[in-house]
UniProtKB/TrEMBL annotation:
<feature type="compositionally biased region" description="Low complexity">
    <location>
        <begin position="30"/>
        <end position="92"/>
    </location>
</feature>
<protein>
    <submittedName>
        <fullName>Right-handed parallel beta-helix repeat-containing protein</fullName>
    </submittedName>
</protein>
<feature type="compositionally biased region" description="Gly residues">
    <location>
        <begin position="20"/>
        <end position="29"/>
    </location>
</feature>
<dbReference type="InterPro" id="IPR011050">
    <property type="entry name" value="Pectin_lyase_fold/virulence"/>
</dbReference>
<dbReference type="InterPro" id="IPR012334">
    <property type="entry name" value="Pectin_lyas_fold"/>
</dbReference>
<feature type="region of interest" description="Disordered">
    <location>
        <begin position="18"/>
        <end position="92"/>
    </location>
</feature>
Amino acid sequence: MRTRCARSGWVVAVALTSACGGGGGGGSDSDGTSSTGAATTAATMTGPTSSSGATSEGDPPTTTVDPSTGTTQTSSTSTGDDTGTTGAPPTACADDCHYIRAGAKGSGADWDDALPELPDELARGHVYFVAAGTYPAYQFDDAESGDAVIRVLRAGADDHGTDVGWDPAFAAGEAVFGELRFASGRYEFDGRDATRVVGGFESTVVDIAAPAIRFLRSDVDGAFAERGGKHVGGACTAMSISGDDVVVAGNRIHDAADDGVVAAGLVNLSFTGNVVHALHGCGTDGDCGPCYNGHSDGLELFAVKDSEIVGNMIYDVASTAAVFFGNWADELGMGASEYCENLLLANNILYSPETGFVAYIEDAREVRVLNNVIWGLHQGAYGGLSIGVNVSGLDLYNNAILSINYTHIGGEYDPAEHRGDYNLFGYSLGQWQDGPHDLVAEDP
């Protein structure tokens, strides 16, 4: 039975504001109910990579399990920012810390004797502190040595290694890099909210093509520029991820001609606490520029397994969707082996009124969608979540979703494989079977 939220004390874990929108027709892709909404807040949670499932029939999942450790975690105890540096003690240095300062001419032994930029070869197990200034593009390609990690840290007032030669001005302003590429594994790059990585024309700003990378708290700037309706400057893609066991947390990712983040062919990605926005939908389709097709997605996933997407905000996306599951495995890839599998999408705000649908789920197994806002512009049957073919093991609990559409990309509701409850919908197309505690809002 459908319950109207005006008569219920049911509480959703997100907040919405509403305004009137357009539409027209019946209960298919031309449904005429009018409602739009802007996501304003969302609960947050830890970063597990799989869910234990519902605690009982009709109840939402309340715990999650990290497959790498086997530990069970509760679902609302952190913000999703996995940096872990708040209140942390300063980095302890022996002979393993080096100092980088734009304009310097030294060896890197201290701040007086700093290197002008990251050296061509970095030492495994060492730390490289970076002061404010402008630095060139860099490829991280040092040979791995066991579990030894190379750390590149933005120097700050509270953590900058040695005090020899230190000037508080080194912590002021930004450290600005050109494009970064991780071609070998086991690096931590922590911008500490004072680092910007800027993309050149047709580039990928940050390319994570190796395992065990932690990329934290940086501004990933596609620097898109347009003149006369044409792409004349800035990156095609803000970030590409193809390495296993990668953590991307606490970053601002924006202003690319095409996609914000493309993740493909990997396992155990933790993508938490990031803001992705200002994607311009500019490419070969429409003759806007040289980037392939220009169908912008905030986060595009293909053959991604055992991973979490938690506590992010994705908005201001031109063209396709805030989140898009790649649907070309059967026609252009290796078939079902390249479907996405065992994914957690939790506590995200996906707000995309500029696109037809906010999110697409297709070619995916064991996907848990919990505590999210998925909201766009009500345009007939458009504006919410589109579910397509080859979707099994879908859990959809405690979300605020404008609407669910199966017919747009050929999907069909399967009660054995598509489970959900405690969701708030802006309106119903009659294509999702409401759970006993699902609510459909009154049309404002």
